[in-house]
Amino acid sequence: MARTMKSEAKAAGGPDTPGGPRRTGTRGETAPGPLRRALATHWYAWTMIAPVVIVVAVIIGYPLGRGVWLSLTNADESNVERTIGANTIEATYEFVGLDNYTAILTDTVFWSRLGWTVLWTVACVSITFTIGLTLANMLNRKLRGRALYRVLLILPWGIPAFVSVFAWRLLFNERNGLLNNVLNGGGIDSIAWLGDPTWAKVSVIAVNVWLGVPFMLVATLGALQSIPGELYEAAEMDGAGPWQRFRNITMPGIRAVSSTVILLSTIWTFNMFPVIYLLTRGGPGDSSEILVTYAFRLAFLNSPRDFASSAAWGVLILLLLVAFAVGYRRVLRKQGEVW
C-alpha cells in the first residue's frame, strides 16, 4: 500500500521527487527570497532609515558624481552655463577624458603640494596624538581640580574654528602680536610668523594641533578609563615599572580607540581648509598651501576659474584618502585588530 502511494506521488511529480515543483505557500505562491524576507521582517527599521539614506545620497552622491563628471571635461568660467540678465548662455564645455588627470600628475605643482600636505598631516596627527595621550594619562589619575582641568583642556573644541584662527592670527601679528611683544621684552628680535615660509608652516601646524588636542584627549581618556585597574595593580606587584606598564597595558588597551581616532584625524587634517586659508591663505607665496586649498584656488580665485581642474584635484584627494584608509585597514587586520 505504501509503495503504491509513493509511486503515485512520483508519477504526479510531487515535492518528494527531485524533479517536482518548487515548494509553495498555502495559496500556491513561491516562497519569498532573503531580501523580501528581510524587508518583511524589518520593514519598520527600513522605513525609519530610508529618509536619512535618501538625504545623504542626494547631499553626497550628487555633488560627488557632478565633480567626477566635471573632472572629465574642460569646464571653466568661460564655457559653463551662466545667466546674464534675462538671457541664459548654454554650456559649451566638452568631454576630454583623462586629460586633466594627466596634466596634474605630470606637473611638479601637484607633487610639491602633495609632499607638504603629507608632512603637514603627519606632523599634526603625531603631535596631537602625543599631547592628547599625555594629558589623558595625567587626567586619568586622582588629583585636585581634575574636573576643571578637563573643562579647560576641552575648551578649544567648543570654540568655532574660524574664531580660533582669527585669534591666533592676531597673536602672530608681526608688529603688534602678543608673541612678538613677549620676545621683544626678552631682548629677542621679532619673528615674521606668517611672513616667512618656514615660520608660516610652523604656525599653521601649531594652530591645528591646538584645535585637535581636545578630540584626542577625550577619545584617549575614555579608552584609558575602560582599562581595568586590577591590571596595573597586578603589574606593579610583579615589579613592572611605569614604562613597562604603559607599553604592555596602556597601549594595547587603547589600541582599538587610538587606531580609529588616528584615521579620523588624518582624514580631517589632510582636508583642513580653514586653518590654512584663514591663517596664511596658502602664503607667503604658496609655501603653506595644501592640496585642498589649491583646488579651491583653481575654482574660485584664479582667473579664469578652472572648474574642471579643480574637480580633478578633488577626485585625486578622494582617491588618496581612500587608498590610505584601505591600506590602514589592512595593516590593522594583520595586527589582529577588528575594524
Task: Describe the model.
The protein is mainly α. The protein folds into 2 domains: 36-89, no CATH class; 107-305, MetI-like fold (Orthogonal Bundle). Helix content is 68%, strand content 2%. The protein has 14 helices and 2 strands, in the order αααββααααααααααα. It has a two-stranded antiparallel sheet. A hairpin with a 2-residue loop joins strand 1 and strand 2. It is globular, with a radius of gyration of 30 Å. Mean pLDDT is 84; it is low at 1-26.
Quick overview of this protein structure:
The chain is an all-alpha fold. 68% of the residues lie in helices and 2% in strands.
Order of helices and strands: HHHEEHHHHHHHHHHH
Tally of strands = 2
Count of domains? 2
Name given to the CATH architecture of the largest domain:
Orthogonal Bundle
Assigned CATH class of the largest domain: Mainly Alpha
Instruction: State the helical fraction.
Output: 55-70%
User: Residue-averaged pLDDT, rounded?
Assistant: 84
**Which consecutive residue ranges, at least 5 long each, have pLDDT under 50?**
1-26
User: Main β-sheet, in a few words?
Assistant: 2 strands, antiparallel
- Which structural class fits the helix and strand makeup? mainly alpha
Tell me what portion of residues adopts beta-strand conformation.
Answer: under 5%
Radius of gyration: 30 Å
Oligomer: single chain
Provide the spatial order of strands within the biggest beta sheet.
1-2
Query: Helix count, per DSSP?
Result: 14
By CATH's scheme, which homologous superfamily of the largest domain applies?
MetI-like
Distance between the termini: 62 Å
